[in-house]
Amino acid sequence: MNLRAAQVRIYVDADLLGLGKILASLRNDVTYPGDPGAVIHKRQRAPCPIASPDVLDTDWIPQVAARGWLIITRDSMIIQNRNEIAAVRDNKAKMAALNQRDAQTKWGQLEVFMTQWRRIETLTSEPGPFIWRVSRTAITSIALD
C-alpha cells in the first residue's frame, strides 16, 4: 500500500480524550495527547508530539499553536481562566471550546462537534489567536483581553 503523510489540522485536548479517540479513528487530520498515530484513508498520521494527557496547558498550547492546529477543548468556565486565555493570545493559538452544558458526555460532545462541523472546519484555516465557544446552536467569540 502506498501511504502519504497525513496533515494534522485539529488537536483534541485531554479533557475530551474520548471524543479525540473517536474522531482520530475516522479522520487522518485529527490527533489527541498520547495518540500513537494511525493509517486512515491511506494517510499515515504520526504519533502526537504531546505524548500524554498529563502535559500542562502552558506546555502543550505553545507546541500545538506553533503547528497551526485548531485546539478543541471543553468550555469549563474558560472566560474566567485568564492563564489559558493568555496562553492562547500569546502563542497565537486557535481554539474552539465546546459548551460545557452541551458537552457533558461523549455523545453530547460528538453531537456538538458534528452539528457545528462545517463552521469548525473553517476555523482550521483562519489565523489565530482566537477562542470560539461552540454549542449545538451557536458559535460565539470569547474576548482575549
Concise description?
The protein has about 140 residues and is of the alpha/beta class.
Which structural traits does this protein have?
145 residues, alpha/beta, six-stranded mixed β-sheet, three-stranded mixed β-sheet, 5 helices
Task: Please characterize this protein's 3D structure.
The protein has 145 residues and is α/β, with parallel strands linked by helices. The chain has one domain (4-141). 32% of the residues lie in helices and 23% in strands. It contains five helices and nine strands. It has helices at residues 17-26, 57-66, 82-91, 106-115, 117-123, and strands spanning 4-5, 10-12, 30-31, 38-40, 43-45, 70-75, 94-99, 130-134, 139-141. Strands 3-2-6-7-8-9 form a six-stranded mixed beta sheet, sandwiched between helices. Strands 1-5-4 form a three-stranded mixed beta sheet, covered by helices on one side. Helix 1 links the parallel strand 2 and strand 3.
